Amino acid sequence: MIKLNTNECPYPPAPGVARLAAGMDCNAIRLYPDSNTASLTCALADYYHVKKEQVFVGVGSDDVLSMAFLTFFNGSLPILFPDVTYSFYDVWAKLYRIPYKTCPLDESWHINPNDYKQPNGGIIFPNPNAPTGLLESLDTVEEIVKANPGVVVIVDEAYIDFGGVSALPLLEKYDNLLIVQTFSKSRAMAGMRIGFCIGNERLIQYLKDVKFSFNSYTINMPSQVIGVEAVRDEAYFKEITGKIIATRERIKNVLRDLKFTFPDSCANFIFASHEAVPAKEIFTKLRERDIYVRYWDKPRISNSVRITIGTDAQMDALTDALREICNNA
Ligand SMILES: *Cc1c(COP(=O)(O)O)cnc(C)c1O
Fold first, then answer.
1. Do 68 and 74 meet the contact criterion of CB atoms below 8 Å apart?
2. pLDDT attached to residue 67
3. CA of 77 to the centre of ligand 1 (A)
4. What is this structure's pTM?
5. Alpha carbon 109 to chain centroid, angstroms
6. How far is ligand 1, taken at its centre, from the CA of residue 73, in Å?
7. At residue 328, does pLDDT exceed 80?
8. What is the CB < 6 Å shell around ligand 1?
9. Mean predicted lDDT score pLDDT of the chain
10. Long-range contact list for 163-166, CB < 8 A, 24+ apart?
11. Contact 79/123 with Cβ under 8 angstroms?
12. Which of 44, 61, 192 to mutate for ligand 1's pocket (most ligand atoms within 8 Å of CB)?
């Protein structure tokens, strides 16, 4: 089976992670973990050159995002996010009864910053966006943050490590910006469930207040210990993200030759459609060959498949299969 449907990393986590996991002192899990997640918070603060009071860690970034919706998106005006974006945003908005409004991406799948200058109760968008993979410039991000001083603007940087430019430097100028990242994609640890956000100290304290009000021990002890090790091994992190970027750029050329078109992805996936073969057929025929990609039967995106970047060998198997499927169409 070749699994290219949920944007996991095809490479193992940092070597120190395996060593630590193998040598884990099981007596230590008798005790509650550190509710402040201090060691991991400090490791992240060091790595990103911010204060530890500016970092909040959660059980995957889905937990961080959901907590941020609950904490910051509680006004009466609608929150804003793109019409084509991460599929959980409208789910949380509905669950928490938060009014929301979507702003259509333009015909080249980009965000129009002017859409985010209307009255609103908060803003969220991924950068690079999912499932398009398109990166917005730091200028665009700043324009949106600057135009909305009265609300929290969340930038979901789940895919920023695959060649994007993080909004972190903007934190010095804006106290309404919250940047969310995850260990699930670029740090090869989706199974560990570690996500975090970085922002102004006051925003981070509000998040902690909400989180601790119903569960103070969310990050388990092994995740805390192993997470620190993953952050420390910068060389390995650069190595695997570099390999994924190189594979992505190579596969873009192969896909173009096979008559696919796609936004120029800056993430660890490509959102592609074929000039002749419908996406649903590509998805089904790949599945018959035990190759799994992602397909949504939703407006605007129903003629594209999202393909996670795997190893070179996996991607060669994929493009061989696509060659058969598209040439026999
Ligand atoms: C994968 C993803 C997440 C959530 O990842 P976690 O595994 O919960 O950390 C959040 N936002 C976007 C845009 C994603 O693609």
1. no
2. 96
3. 26
4. 0.97
5. 17
6. 19
7. no
8. 7, 60-62, 86, 126, 130, 156, 158, 182, 184, 190, 195
9. 96
10. 163/135, 163/245, 163/266, 164/127, 164/128, 164/135, 164/266, 164/267, 165/135, 165/137, 165/138
11. yes
12. 61
